[in-house]
Amino acid sequence: MSVFVDRDREMQLIDDSFRTLLDKHRLLRNPILEFYGVSGIGKTLLLEQIKERCHDTMLPYIWVSLAGKESTFLQKEVVNQVNNYLRKSGLQLEQSAVGAIKVLLKQGPVVMLLDAVDETGNDQVEEIEALLRDLIDDEKLFVVLASKKMIEFENERSVARKLQWHNLRALDRSSCEEYLDKWEQDINEPEKQIDSDLRSIIFRWTQGYPLAMNIMVEAINDGNDPRTEAGKQRIVARLKERIIDQEILKGAEGDWKERCFTLLRLLSVPRRSNTMLMEELITHFAPEYHRKSSLAYFSLPTELHETTHVFSWNLERFGFAVETPVRHLFLLLYQQVRPQEYFAVHNFLADLNHQLAQEATGQDRVRYAREYLYHLASNPSIEHHEQKVMEALASILKEQPEFLQPFFEEFAQDQELKEELGQYLPQIEQAIQERAAQIKGDV
Q1: Contact between 137 and 171 (Cβ < 8 Å)
Q2: Among 100-104, 159-163, 312-316, 366-370, which stretch is predicted with the lowest mean pLDDT?
Q3: What integer pLDDT is reported at residue 138 of this predicted model?
Q4: Domain spanning 8-167 has what CATH number?
Q5: Hey, what's the torsion of the CAs at 259, 264, 266, 268, to 10 degrees?
Protein backbone atom coordinates (compact mmCIF):
# COMPACT_ATOMS: atom_id res chain seq x y z
CA MET A 1 0.00 0.00 0.00
CA SER A 2 1.13 3.58 -0.67
CA VAL A 3 -0.36 6.06 1.78
CA PHE A 4 1.01 9.58 2.06
CA VAL A 5 0.80 11.18 5.53
CA ASP A 6 2.85 13.25 7.98
CA ARG A 7 5.08 15.07 5.50
CA ASP A 8 3.63 18.52 6.14
CA ARG A 9 7.03 20.01 6.92
CA GLU A 10 8.55 18.70 3.72
CA MET A 11 5.60 19.68 1.53
CA GLN A 12 5.52 23.16 3.06
CA LEU A 13 9.15 23.50 2.04
CA ILE A 14 8.27 22.40 -1.50
CA ASP A 15 5.29 24.75 -1.73
CA ASP A 16 7.41 27.68 -0.54
CA SER A 17 10.06 26.81 -3.14
CA PHE A 18 7.45 26.59 -5.89
CA ARG A 19 6.03 30.01 -4.98
CA THR A 20 9.51 31.52 -5.10
CA LEU A 21 10.30 29.73 -8.36
CA LEU A 22 7.17 31.16 -10.00
CA ASP A 23 7.83 34.70 -8.70
CA LYS A 24 10.00 36.61 -11.18
CA HIS A 25 11.15 38.98 -8.44
CA ARG A 26 12.49 36.35 -6.01
CA LEU A 27 15.38 33.87 -6.00
CA LEU A 28 15.53 30.43 -4.46
CA ARG A 29 17.92 30.36 -1.52
CA ASN A 30 18.31 26.58 -1.81
CA PRO A 31 17.64 25.49 -5.39
CA ILE A 32 18.73 21.91 -4.57
CA LEU A 33 16.94 19.91 -1.87
CA GLU A 34 17.92 16.42 -0.86
CA PHE A 35 15.61 14.13 1.12
CA TYR A 36 17.47 11.16 2.54
CA GLY A 37 16.61 8.22 4.74
CA VAL A 38 16.54 4.44 4.96
CA SER A 39 14.78 2.19 2.45
CA GLY A 40 11.02 2.30 2.83
CA ILE A 41 10.86 5.57 4.75
CA GLY A 42 8.84 7.28 1.99
CA LYS A 43 11.31 9.09 -0.28
CA THR A 44 9.83 7.97 -3.59
CA LEU A 45 6.30 8.64 -2.36
CA LEU A 46 7.37 12.17 -1.45
CA LEU A 47 8.77 12.71 -4.95
CA GLU A 48 5.48 11.47 -6.37
CA GLN A 49 3.67 14.16 -4.38
CA ILE A 50 6.07 16.79 -5.70
CA LYS A 51 5.35 15.56 -9.22
CA GLU A 52 1.65 16.13 -8.53
CA ARG A 53 2.48 19.67 -7.42
CA CYS A 54 4.19 20.17 -10.78
CA HIS A 55 0.99 19.08 -12.54
CA ASP A 56 -1.10 21.41 -10.37
CA THR A 57 1.14 24.42 -11.04
CA MET A 58 1.79 23.48 -14.70
CA LEU A 59 5.54 23.38 -14.13
CA PRO A 60 7.52 21.19 -16.54
CA TYR A 61 9.43 18.50 -14.67
CA ILE A 62 12.02 15.82 -15.31
CA TRP A 63 11.61 12.63 -13.27
CA VAL A 64 14.42 10.05 -13.23
CA SER A 65 14.69 7.04 -10.93
CA LEU A 66 18.22 5.62 -11.01
CA ALA A 67 17.53 2.45 -9.02
CA GLY A 68 19.03 -0.50 -10.88
CA LYS A 69 19.99 1.63 -13.90
CA GLU A 70 23.28 1.79 -15.81
CA SER A 71 25.50 4.87 -15.69
CA THR A 72 24.40 6.02 -19.16
CA PHE A 73 20.70 5.99 -18.25
CA LEU A 74 20.57 9.46 -16.69
CA GLN A 75 21.76 11.39 -19.74
CA LYS A 76 19.51 9.48 -22.14
CA GLU A 77 16.42 9.74 -19.95
CA VAL A 78 16.86 13.49 -19.36
CA VAL A 79 17.27 14.11 -23.09
CA ASN A 80 14.19 12.01 -23.94
CA GLN A 81 11.96 13.72 -21.37
CA VAL A 82 13.08 17.24 -22.26
CA ASN A 83 12.69 16.58 -25.99
CA ASN A 84 9.08 15.54 -25.35
CA TYR A 85 8.47 19.09 -24.07
CA LEU A 86 10.43 20.61 -26.95
CA ARG A 87 8.37 18.70 -29.55
CA LYS A 88 5.18 20.14 -28.11
CA SER A 89 6.65 23.63 -28.48
CA GLY A 90 7.97 23.01 -31.99
CA LEU A 91 11.57 23.56 -30.91
CA GLN A 92 14.70 21.86 -32.19
CA LEU A 93 15.56 18.69 -30.32
CA GLU A 94 18.79 18.45 -28.33
CA GLN A 95 21.28 15.60 -27.97
CA SER A 96 22.87 16.37 -24.58
CA ALA A 97 21.21 16.58 -21.18
CA VAL A 98 22.73 19.97 -20.34
CA GLY A 99 21.84 21.44 -23.74
CA ALA A 100 18.30 20.08 -23.59
CA ILE A 101 17.59 21.46 -20.11
CA LYS A 102 19.06 24.86 -21.03
CA VAL A 103 16.71 25.11 -23.99
CA LEU A 104 13.76 24.19 -21.77
CA LEU A 105 14.82 26.74 -19.14
CA LYS A 106 14.57 29.51 -21.74
CA GLN A 107 10.82 28.83 -21.71
CA GLY A 108 10.52 29.25 -17.90
CA PRO A 109 11.05 27.42 -14.57
CA VAL A 110 11.86 23.69 -14.60
CA VAL A 111 11.77 21.10 -11.80
CA MET A 112 14.14 18.12 -11.80
CA LEU A 113 13.32 15.11 -9.58
CA LEU A 114 16.05 12.48 -9.19
CA ASP A 115 15.32 9.36 -7.15
CA ALA A 116 17.80 6.79 -5.76
CA VAL A 117 20.79 8.95 -6.65
CA ASP A 118 23.20 6.90 -4.52
CA GLU A 119 22.19 3.41 -5.60
CA THR A 120 24.41 3.04 -8.67
CA GLY A 121 27.74 4.05 -7.19
CA ASN A 122 30.06 7.04 -7.04
CA ASP A 123 30.29 7.40 -10.82
CA GLN A 124 26.58 8.17 -11.03
CA VAL A 125 26.82 10.69 -8.19
CA GLU A 126 29.72 12.43 -9.93
CA GLU A 127 27.73 12.56 -13.17
CA ILE A 128 24.81 14.22 -11.36
CA GLU A 129 27.27 16.60 -9.72
CA ALA A 130 28.71 17.61 -13.09
CA LEU A 131 25.23 18.02 -14.59
CA LEU A 132 24.15 20.30 -11.76
CA ARG A 133 27.39 22.28 -11.95
CA ASP A 134 26.59 23.23 -15.55
CA LEU A 135 22.96 24.12 -14.80
CA ILE A 136 22.53 25.39 -11.27
CA ASP A 137 23.45 29.00 -12.00
CA ASP A 138 20.17 29.28 -13.89
CA GLU A 139 17.78 30.80 -11.38
CA LYS A 140 14.76 29.01 -12.86
CA LEU A 141 15.92 25.46 -12.06
CA PHE A 142 14.72 23.65 -8.93
CA VAL A 143 16.18 20.21 -8.14
CA VAL A 144 14.93 17.64 -5.62
CA LEU A 145 17.03 14.55 -4.88
CA ALA A 146 16.21 11.40 -2.93
CA SER A 147 18.85 9.06 -1.50
CA LYS A 148 19.52 6.63 1.31
CA LYS A 149 22.53 8.53 2.61
CA MET A 150 23.34 12.21 2.65
CA ILE A 151 25.10 13.19 -0.60
CA GLU A 152 27.48 16.10 -0.12
CA PHE A 153 28.81 16.76 -3.65
CA GLU A 154 32.30 17.43 -2.33
CA ASN A 155 33.87 17.85 -5.78
CA GLU A 156 31.84 20.91 -6.78
CA ARG A 157 31.58 23.71 -4.24
CA SER A 158 29.19 25.65 -6.47
CA VAL A 159 26.72 22.76 -6.19
CA ALA A 160 27.33 22.04 -2.49
CA ARG A 161 26.66 25.68 -1.53
CA LYS A 162 23.17 25.51 -3.00
CA LEU A 163 22.24 22.16 -1.45
CA GLN A 164 20.05 21.67 1.61
CA TRP A 165 19.53 18.28 3.30
CA HIS A 166 16.44 16.94 5.03
CA ASN A 167 16.33 13.62 6.85
CA LEU A 168 12.99 11.80 6.49
CA ARG A 169 11.93 10.32 9.80
CA ALA A 170 9.42 7.66 10.82
CA LEU A 171 5.78 8.55 11.49
CA ASP A 172 4.53 9.54 14.93
CA ARG A 173 1.60 7.75 16.59
CA SER A 174 -1.14 10.07 15.32
CA SER A 175 0.23 9.86 11.78
CA CYS A 176 0.29 6.07 12.04
CA GLU A 177 -3.42 6.17 12.93
CA GLU A 178 -4.07 8.40 9.92
CA TYR A 179 -1.98 6.05 7.78
CA LEU A 180 -4.05 3.02 8.80
CA ASP A 181 -7.32 4.96 8.40
CA LYS A 182 -6.44 5.88 4.82
CA TRP A 183 -5.33 2.33 4.11
CA GLU A 184 -8.70 1.00 5.30
CA GLN A 185 -10.52 3.57 3.15
CA ASP A 186 -8.49 2.59 0.08
CA ILE A 187 -9.12 -1.15 0.35
CA ASN A 188 -12.76 -0.72 1.46
CA GLU A 189 -12.97 -4.28 2.82
CA PRO A 190 -14.71 -4.40 6.24
CA GLU A 191 -13.28 -7.80 7.10
CA LYS A 192 -9.75 -6.36 6.90
CA GLN A 193 -10.31 -3.47 9.30
CA ILE A 194 -7.62 -3.18 11.98
CA ASP A 195 -8.89 -2.89 15.56
CA SER A 196 -7.32 -0.65 18.21
CA ASP A 197 -5.46 -3.50 19.90
CA LEU A 198 -3.72 -4.48 16.67
CA ARG A 199 -3.00 -0.83 15.86
CA SER A 200 -1.16 -0.47 19.16
CA ILE A 201 0.92 -3.56 18.42
CA ILE A 202 1.71 -2.34 14.89
CA PHE A 203 2.98 0.98 16.21
CA ARG A 204 4.93 -0.61 19.06
CA TRP A 205 6.65 -3.06 16.71
CA THR A 206 7.31 -0.70 13.80
CA GLN A 207 7.67 2.66 15.60
CA GLY A 208 6.13 4.34 12.55
CA TYR A 209 8.52 2.92 9.93
CA PRO A 210 6.25 2.89 6.83
CA LEU A 211 7.81 -0.14 5.12
CA ALA A 212 7.58 -2.18 8.32
CA MET A 213 3.96 -1.08 8.77
CA ASN A 214 3.12 -2.20 5.23
CA ILE A 215 4.67 -5.62 5.75
CA MET A 216 3.07 -6.10 9.16
CA VAL A 217 -0.41 -5.17 7.93
CA GLU A 218 -0.01 -7.55 4.99
CA ALA A 219 1.06 -10.33 7.37
CA ILE A 220 -1.93 -9.71 9.65
CA ASN A 221 -4.29 -9.79 6.66
CA ASP A 222 -2.72 -13.11 5.67
CA GLY A 223 -3.95 -14.54 8.97
CA ASN A 224 -0.93 -13.98 11.22
CA ASP A 225 -2.00 -12.68 14.63
CA PRO A 226 0.86 -10.95 16.53
CA ARG A 227 -0.92 -11.77 19.80
CA THR A 228 -0.13 -15.46 19.33
CA GLU A 229 3.36 -16.93 19.54
CA ALA A 230 3.13 -18.57 16.12
CA GLY A 231 1.80 -15.40 14.49
CA LYS A 232 4.47 -13.31 16.19
CA GLN A 233 7.25 -15.55 14.88
CA ARG A 234 5.94 -15.52 11.32
CA ILE A 235 5.57 -11.72 11.29
CA VAL A 236 9.06 -11.20 12.73
CA ALA A 237 10.49 -13.60 10.12
CA ARG A 238 8.72 -11.71 7.33
CA LEU A 239 10.01 -8.35 8.59
CA LYS A 240 13.56 -9.69 8.69
CA GLU A 241 13.36 -11.15 5.20
CA ARG A 242 11.69 -8.17 3.50
CA ILE A 243 13.55 -5.33 5.22
CA ILE A 244 16.81 -6.59 6.67
CA ASP A 245 17.74 -9.23 4.08
CA GLN A 246 16.23 -7.75 0.91
CA GLU A 247 16.81 -4.04 1.59
CA ILE A 248 19.38 -3.23 4.26
CA LEU A 249 21.77 -6.11 3.52
CA LYS A 250 21.21 -6.46 -0.22
CA GLY A 251 24.69 -5.05 -0.88
CA ALA A 252 26.38 -7.69 1.31
CA GLU A 253 27.26 -11.23 0.31
CA GLY A 254 28.41 -14.46 1.97
CA ASP A 255 30.06 -14.22 5.38
CA TRP A 256 30.02 -10.41 5.27
CA LYS A 257 26.22 -10.45 5.12
CA GLU A 258 25.94 -12.53 8.29
CA ARG A 259 28.60 -10.41 9.97
CA CYS A 260 26.75 -7.17 9.10
CA PHE A 261 23.51 -8.56 10.48
CA THR A 262 25.07 -9.72 13.75
CA LEU A 263 27.00 -6.48 14.30
CA LEU A 264 24.11 -4.17 13.44
CA ARG A 265 21.80 -6.12 15.72
CA LEU A 266 24.32 -5.86 18.55
CA LEU A 267 25.12 -2.18 17.92
CA SER A 268 21.42 -1.32 17.89
CA VAL A 269 21.16 -1.88 21.65
CA PRO A 270 23.23 1.16 22.66
CA ARG A 271 21.67 4.44 21.56
CA ARG A 272 25.12 5.76 20.67
CA SER A 273 28.50 4.10 20.20
CA ASN A 274 32.17 4.92 19.91
CA THR A 275 34.96 2.59 18.89
CA MET A 276 35.70 1.69 22.53
CA LEU A 277 32.10 0.62 23.09
CA MET A 278 32.02 -1.30 19.80
CA GLU A 279 35.11 -3.22 20.82
CA GLU A 280 33.68 -4.03 24.26
CA LEU A 281 30.36 -5.28 22.88
CA ILE A 282 31.88 -7.34 20.08
CA THR A 283 34.47 -8.89 22.40
CA HIS A 284 31.78 -9.99 24.86
CA PHE A 285 28.84 -10.87 22.59
CA ALA A 286 30.27 -11.55 19.11
CA PRO A 287 33.82 -12.75 19.79
CA GLU A 288 34.03 -14.46 16.40
CA TYR A 289 34.17 -10.96 14.89
CA HIS A 290 36.65 -9.50 17.36
CA ARG A 291 39.41 -7.50 15.65
CA LYS A 292 43.12 -7.87 16.33
CA SER A 293 43.63 -4.38 17.73
CA SER A 294 41.66 -1.40 19.00
CA LEU A 295 42.82 0.63 16.01
CA ALA A 296 41.13 -1.85 13.67
CA TYR A 297 37.74 -0.76 15.02
CA PHE A 298 38.10 2.76 13.61
CA SER A 299 37.23 1.51 10.12
CA LEU A 300 34.20 -0.52 11.25
CA PRO A 301 31.58 2.29 11.07
CA THR A 302 32.63 3.16 7.51
CA GLU A 303 32.57 -0.49 6.44
CA LEU A 304 29.08 -1.01 7.85
CA HIS A 305 27.71 2.25 6.45
CA GLU A 306 29.12 1.77 2.94
CA THR A 307 27.35 -1.60 2.77
CA THR A 308 24.05 -0.82 4.50
CA HIS A 309 23.68 3.01 4.65
CA VAL A 310 22.22 2.73 8.17
CA PHE A 311 25.20 3.16 10.54
CA SER A 312 26.84 6.57 10.80
CA TRP A 313 27.73 9.45 13.09
CA ASN A 314 24.64 10.94 14.73
CA LEU A 315 25.02 14.56 15.84
CA GLU A 316 22.01 14.39 18.15
CA ARG A 317 23.38 11.38 20.02
CA PHE A 318 27.06 12.41 20.02
CA GLY A 319 28.13 9.06 18.61
CA PHE A 320 27.69 6.41 15.95
CA ALA A 321 24.18 4.99 15.77
CA VAL A 322 22.00 2.73 13.68
CA GLU A 323 19.34 4.78 11.84
CA THR A 324 16.31 4.99 14.12
CA PRO A 325 13.65 3.18 12.02
CA VAL A 326 15.98 0.24 11.35
CA ARG A 327 17.35 0.24 14.90
CA HIS A 328 13.89 -0.40 16.35
CA LEU A 329 13.45 -3.30 13.93
CA PHE A 330 16.77 -4.84 14.97
CA LEU A 331 15.77 -4.47 18.62
CA LEU A 332 12.47 -6.23 17.94
CA LEU A 333 14.28 -9.11 16.18
CA TYR A 334 16.87 -9.37 18.94
CA GLN A 335 14.31 -9.45 21.74
CA GLN A 336 12.05 -11.94 19.97
CA VAL A 337 14.71 -14.36 18.75
CA ARG A 338 17.42 -14.11 21.45
CA PRO A 339 15.76 -12.65 24.54
CA GLN A 340 18.37 -13.81 27.06
CA GLU A 341 21.24 -12.35 25.07
CA TYR A 342 19.24 -9.18 24.39
CA PHE A 343 18.73 -8.48 28.09
CA ALA A 344 22.31 -9.50 28.85
CA VAL A 345 23.53 -6.78 26.46
CA HIS A 346 21.31 -4.21 28.20
CA ASN A 347 22.68 -5.35 31.56
CA PHE A 348 26.26 -5.09 30.29
CA LEU A 349 25.63 -1.58 28.94
CA ALA A 350 23.95 -0.50 32.18
CA ASP A 351 27.02 -1.55 34.17
CA LEU A 352 29.38 0.07 31.67
CA ASN A 353 27.55 3.40 31.63
CA HIS A 354 27.32 3.35 35.42
CA GLN A 355 31.09 2.92 35.61
CA LEU A 356 31.70 5.67 33.03
CA ALA A 357 29.36 8.02 34.90
CA GLN A 358 31.38 7.52 38.09
CA GLU A 359 34.63 8.29 36.25
CA ALA A 360 33.37 11.29 34.25
CA THR A 361 32.63 14.84 35.36
CA GLY A 362 30.09 17.53 34.54
CA GLN A 363 27.82 17.12 31.53
CA ASP A 364 29.50 13.88 30.44
CA ARG A 365 28.65 12.30 33.78
CA VAL A 366 24.99 13.26 33.40
CA ARG A 367 24.92 11.90 29.86
CA TYR A 368 26.39 8.54 30.92
CA ALA A 369 23.98 8.43 33.86
CA ARG A 370 21.02 8.98 31.54
CA GLU A 371 22.12 6.02 29.39
CA TYR A 372 22.56 3.97 32.56
CA LEU A 373 18.97 4.83 33.43
CA TYR A 374 17.82 3.86 29.92
CA HIS A 375 19.48 0.44 29.97
CA LEU A 376 18.23 -0.26 33.49
CA ALA A 377 14.69 0.58 32.43
CA SER A 378 15.04 -1.63 29.33
CA ASN A 379 15.70 -4.74 31.43
CA PRO A 380 12.77 -5.31 33.83
CA SER A 381 14.16 -8.72 34.78
CA ILE A 382 16.85 -7.09 36.92
CA GLU A 383 16.42 -7.83 40.63
CA HIS A 384 15.08 -4.86 42.63
CA HIS A 385 14.34 -3.13 39.33
CA GLU A 386 12.28 -0.22 40.64
CA GLN A 387 14.75 0.55 43.42
CA LYS A 388 17.70 0.64 41.01
CA VAL A 389 15.83 2.85 38.53
CA MET A 390 14.91 5.38 41.20
CA GLU A 391 18.45 5.32 42.63
CA ALA A 392 19.83 6.03 39.16
CA LEU A 393 17.53 9.02 38.81
CA ALA A 394 18.43 10.27 42.29
CA SER A 395 22.13 10.26 41.40
CA ILE A 396 21.40 12.41 38.37
CA LEU A 397 19.27 14.89 40.28
CA LYS A 398 22.11 15.47 42.75
CA GLU A 399 24.17 17.12 40.00
CA GLN A 400 24.82 20.86 39.88
CA PRO A 401 22.02 22.99 38.33
CA GLU A 402 24.14 23.99 35.31
CA PHE A 403 24.44 20.32 34.37
CA LEU A 404 20.83 19.46 35.13
CA GLN A 405 19.18 22.02 32.86
CA PRO A 406 20.32 20.22 29.66
CA PHE A 407 19.17 16.94 31.23
CA PHE A 408 15.69 18.36 31.91
CA GLU A 409 15.42 19.55 28.29
CA GLU A 410 16.72 16.30 26.81
CA PHE A 411 14.51 14.14 29.04
CA ALA A 412 11.42 16.08 27.92
CA GLN A 413 12.20 15.10 24.31
CA ASP A 414 13.40 11.55 25.00
CA GLN A 415 10.30 9.54 24.10
CA GLU A 416 12.22 6.29 23.92
CA LEU A 417 13.44 6.58 27.50
CA LYS A 418 9.94 7.53 28.67
CA GLU A 419 8.48 4.45 26.98
CA GLU A 420 11.05 2.19 28.62
CA LEU A 421 10.36 3.72 32.06
CA GLY A 422 6.73 2.66 31.68
CA GLN A 423 4.99 2.43 35.06
CA TYR A 424 7.77 4.39 36.76
CA LEU A 425 7.38 7.41 34.48
CA PRO A 426 4.85 9.41 36.58
CA GLN A 427 7.00 9.04 39.69
CA ILE A 428 10.15 10.01 37.80
CA GLU A 429 8.54 13.02 36.13
CA GLN A 430 7.32 14.21 39.51
CA ALA A 431 10.84 13.94 40.97
CA ILE A 432 12.26 15.88 38.03
CA GLN A 433 9.62 18.60 38.36
CA GLU A 434 10.31 18.93 42.10
CA ARG A 435 14.08 19.22 41.50
CA ALA A 436 13.54 21.78 38.73
CA ALA A 437 11.26 23.81 41.01
CA GLN A 438 13.85 23.63 43.80
CA ILE A 439 16.56 24.93 41.47
CA LYS A 440 14.32 27.73 40.27
CA GLY A 441 13.52 28.68 43.85
CA ASP A 442 17.22 28.75 44.77
CA VAL A 443 18.11 31.12 41.96
Answers
A1: no
A2: 312-316
A3: 83
A4: 3.40.50.300
A5: 180
